[in-house]
């Protein structure tokens, strides 16, 4: 799946530059004595400046007047321009999807940059001095798949690049005119863009996922029971049929006791064969030592345990539920171990984020769509403390005790972090001021810890990494 790159026109797409532009034209009129209808000028923004200048000055003066216009522009046009409604939300929506942004405008490139900087619009690549189909060259160069504009010329640019032409009716053309000209999508303004983009990108990424899965005859899915691997399992069953998919849930002391039965039930609901091989990561010194590289040894054990199962059924594909967010989440030695052993990552390859996976899961009616993240129990043990089955049992018992006391609050995330004799309790930040924290501390102490305290920052995925010095992460790899 290619990276998401979205291009935007500038004037009357991202910004209302009419007041500033009109001021510059009025200034030119005053300097030259030429009667310029500046209101008419700003009513038809879009084409290159030289085209408009030719309407008011003879050919031999056009270049000089363009140069003069550009001299006045920074001082008189920038501060008067305002972002159009929905701009900040649209740029944020692209970032949330791990995408990049660019602006392709007929405006002078330095002026494009000045506008973006003045308004604090975070755009990766500003490009100017291109109009109409010429914009397609920049869009192709940066592999833009969507181009948003307010002018018919922007539609030409999008189509020249093979991009989706999204038009907003905030410029000189009405929605009907843009639609009739050939826009693929027409929106009233950018406030409608984030919702459209989310739906469009999710559809594209799901199609990419299903194409990838359909390229395999059979597949083993490393199925932890969590939302990501559950969605992958359901997608594989849809793509190649449940009879050709095996769900493998590894059983070991690091699997929370409450996870196995729901995993079996979920696989059965899909009609998928469910196997529960025992893994022996506890026998690996690198795992027990619990340095920052612990997850490497765990994932290595998992894939090496699943390989004989795949071989037994004549299956060449073993897939994990690694998603696009996991791939950029910093130090992830487990992903490296799986990759080295040939495991597939279809969700990551389709660029599906955690949020998208949950959205798609809800649309498919999967019961795991809102299931809280549930990393293995070993992730609760502070690095450097040697992992033993007894420590894992203590953590599991403590977490169940905390969760049972928060059921009425609709708790989603609970972690009891083992720091040695003491424990750090992490719950959803929104609940911190609503619950009896001492009751939670007492429950954790009763589960076997000497002392405990509730973390005032609330639940944070991977918070143990905050305690690990950078050089320590790579020790034992």
Automatic annotation (TrEMBL):
Domain NAD/GMP synthase: start-end pairs: 215-278
Alphabetical list of InterPro entries matching this protein: HAD-like_sf, HAD_sf, LarE, NAD/GMP_synthase, Ni-pincer_cofactor_biosynth, PGP-like_dom2, Rossmann-like_a/b/a_fold
Basic and acidic residues biased stretches: 467-477
Region spans: Disordered: 458-477
Top-level taxon: Bacteria
Coiled-coil regions listed in the entry: none
Pfam families, sorted: Hydrolase, NAD_synthase
SUPFAM superfamilies assigned: Adenine nucleotide alpha hydrolases-like, HAD-like
Matching NCBIfam families: ATP-dependent sacrificial sulfur transferase LarE
Protein name: NAD/GMP synthase domain-containing protein
Phylogenetic placement of the source organism: Bacteria, Bacillati, Actinomycetota, Actinomycetes, Propionibacteriales
């Amino acid at each position: 799946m290619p990276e998401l790159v979205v291009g935007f026109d500038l004037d009357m797409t991202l910004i209302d530059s009419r007041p500033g532009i009109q001021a510059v034209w009025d200034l030119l009129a005053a300097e030259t004595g030429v009667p310029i209808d500046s209101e008419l000028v700003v009513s038809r923004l879009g084409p290159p400046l030289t085209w408009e200048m030719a309407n008011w000055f003879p050919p031999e003066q056009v270049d000089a007047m363009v140069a003069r216009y550009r001299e006045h522009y920074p001082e008189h046009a920038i501060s008067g321009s305002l972002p159009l409604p929905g701009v900040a939300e649209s740029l944020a929506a692209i970032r949330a999807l791990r995408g990049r942004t660019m602006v392709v405008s007929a405006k002078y490139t330095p002026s494009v940059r000045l506008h973006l900087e003045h308004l604090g619009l975070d755009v990766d690549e500003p490009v100017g001095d291109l109009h109409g189909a010429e914009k397609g060259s920049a869009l192709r160069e940066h592999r833009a798949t969507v181009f948003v504009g307010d002018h018919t010329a922007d539609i030409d640019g999008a189509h020249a690049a093979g991009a989706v032409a999204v038009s907003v009716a905030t410029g000189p053309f009405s929605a009907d005119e843009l639609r009739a000209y050939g826009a693929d999508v027409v929106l009233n303004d950018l406030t409608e863009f984030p919702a459209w983009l989310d739906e469009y990108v999710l559809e594209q990424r799901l199609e990419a996922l299903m194409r990838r899965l359909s390229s395999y005859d059979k597949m083993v899915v490393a199925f932890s029971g969590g939302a990501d691997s559950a969605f992958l399992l359901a997608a594989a069953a849809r793509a190649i049929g449940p009879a050709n998919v095996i769900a493998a849930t590894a059983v070991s002391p690091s699997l929370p006791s409450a996870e196995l039965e729901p995993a079996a039930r979920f696989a059965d609901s899909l009609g998928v064969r469910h196997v529960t091989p025992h893994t022996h990561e506890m026998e690996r010194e690198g795992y027990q030592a619990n340095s920052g590289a612990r997850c490497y040894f765990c994932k290595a054990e998992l894939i090496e345990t699943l390989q004989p199962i795949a071989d037994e059924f004549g299956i060449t594909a073993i897939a994990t539920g690694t998603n696009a967010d996991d791939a950029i989440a910093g130090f992830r030695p487990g992903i490296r171990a799986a990759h080295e052993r040939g495991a597939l990552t279809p969700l990551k390859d389709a660029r599906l984020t955690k949020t998208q996976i949950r959205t798609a899961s809800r649309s498919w009616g999967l019961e795991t769509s809102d299931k809280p993240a549930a990393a293995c129990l070993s992730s609760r043990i502070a690095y450097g403390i040697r992992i033993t089955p007894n420590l894992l049992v203590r953590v599991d018992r403590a977490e169940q005790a905390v969760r049972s006391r928060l059921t009425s609050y609709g708790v989603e995330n609970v972690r009891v972090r083992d720091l040695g004799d003491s424990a750090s309790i992490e719950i959803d930040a929104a609940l911190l001021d609503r619950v009896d924290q001492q009751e939670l501390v007492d429950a954790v102490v009763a589960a076997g810890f000497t002392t405990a305290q509730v973390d005032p920052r609330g639940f944070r995925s991977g918070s143990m990494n905050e305690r690990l010095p950078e050089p320590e992460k790579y020790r034992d790899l």
